[in-house]
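seq as requested:
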Amino acid sequence: MKKQIFSLIIGVLSFQQLFSQTSNIEREKWADKPAIHHLDNKYSKESAVVLYDNRRVEFIDEPKNEVAEYYTLHRIIHINDDRGIETFNKIYLGFSETSDVVDVKARTILPGGKIIELDKNNIKDLKEEDGGVYKIFALDGLEKGCEVEYLYTFKRSTSFFGREVVQERIPILQTTFSIIAPDRLRFEIKPYNFSLSPTDTVISGKRIAQCNIKETAGAEDEKYSFYGANLERIEFKLSFNDMIRKGERLFTWTELAKRIFAVYTYYSDKEYKKVTQMVADNGWDKLNGEVAKITAVENFVKKSYSYNEDLKSEEGNKLENVIQKKIAGTIGITRLYAAIFQSLDIKYQFVLTGNRSKYIIDRGFENWNNCDDPLFYFPVENKFIAPSRPDYRYPWIVPEWAGTNGLFCKTISVGSLTTAIAEVKPIVLEDYTQSYENIDSRLELNKNLDSLSIDSRESFGGYDAVSMRDAFNFANDEQKRTFIKELAKAVSSTDHIISSEVLNKEFEDANSNLPVVLHIKTKSDALIESAGDKLLVKIGLAIGPQVEMYQEKPRQAPVDIDFGHIEERKIDFIIPDGYTISNANDLKIDQTFKDNGELTMGFASGYEIKGNVLSVHIMEEYRKPFYPLAQFDQFRKIINASSDFNKVVLILVKKS
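struct tokens:
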């Protein structure tokens, strides 16, 4: 959301200035004669250590009642080994080619005392895949035991909200974060994932909010955790302006809800008339029931209109232009849905959500920067749609946008005025039983007992089905063939496909909660071996590759997964005539966990033999998207239970 409409929101905000003249910003300095720092032995095994990390956000009064924002970063890093050299021999600057750069300096300090200064002519542009252009430079002469120091200051677009991540993979010995502003502007700072006591002082008409952090440990990027969300970070926002509305809190959630409501419901009578004609032409008003109308509208818009998140101009997002050109950015596409739903008298609320893999919307701290993505919420159905995601259909939305708080904009009317108030509350994920990746397979040996015929039906439901539909609708034919081969190889260890078909792959099938079904018949010799007069059947591989978790270091983060889900597998193996299975009990695994008597995760497998058919049943389930650190060991045991089943090999012996 902020990428496309914050320019509209912030642009209408004005702050009365105490002075109109431009002031000088704080200038960062470094030592004229730097010396290599002595590190404690406890850091000797680290590839690098950040010795000093100073960040400053400064707001300066400028003419025409404007407030300019400058950002400064100053770091010193001690390099211990080759990995550290590789990590820091290139420095990425946090500003683009369009930034107003005030200062850039960098140098390498060698153990012998030699200093190599950065040649600013070596600063290059780096174009990322997203089209953004950034600055990068290489540092010369790095060696073990050296130190890298760099600083830069640049002017950036003014925003009264921010986020600073103050933890990374390597330790940081000292971090200082400051907000400097005219004394009338009072910022609040809140830490996440750690404790902090910011200070607030006024010196010579400048208010300085500051945080000092000592010895931040390095953070491992661990499996089944949201790395970004669990890092220590600072968030800040402007909460008071003592020159106007003194004592009245600024940038509240309700203020944002009102502004969002105004932005998304802005269209002319002429535009609304075109929308009502669209509704009549498609017969949506004749459909029975709210769900039928919602799904028909969503499917039509996502098939007929192109979404371009880079389309940010006010003109391009006018409803009239959206309807005419059939292309829109976030604002335009949301306006289109809102107008259609209004014409159909469907009750809805705008919802803004963040991404729980990175940050949250905090009821008690109004950081508007965390409200990235728009949703429509339908109170009667208690369901959502994601207008900016063509790969999702009602009632499915991006799972990381749920399982966390959202900002619900509740419409209210006071006399002739219609606006919105804010309510911060959870966006609930769909029930875990609705998302699954199931396998139903039949395995039978050929007459020569040297290969297996495998008839496999893989079913993907709920959140699990989204990526499958995405692949089978947007990929080209060659990509689809490759995708099917990889899925076949996962459950049969071969891409020798006899036949394949994909069922329920259309996006509209999600509305009826139909699973995507991949039916593949393969022939494989990879799952069968002979050992003398015995046959070895690698039946464990029929459930596909599984993750195995080792834990050499203490776990740091709790367990995060995208969504609760189940994985049910049913495997029928036809026992060849004249053979019996000597180790069928190896198929029995029971690793489950109950929290206060309620099953929350588990892996359980068992079997039965009727005649010549061995039927294996496996139920693996994770009913929650989050498990606290105290439950990590139980989670790891369950993950490893699936890996243990992966290794099961049936031993077939001839009957005596």
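Residues 191 and 563 are 26 Å apart (CA to CA).
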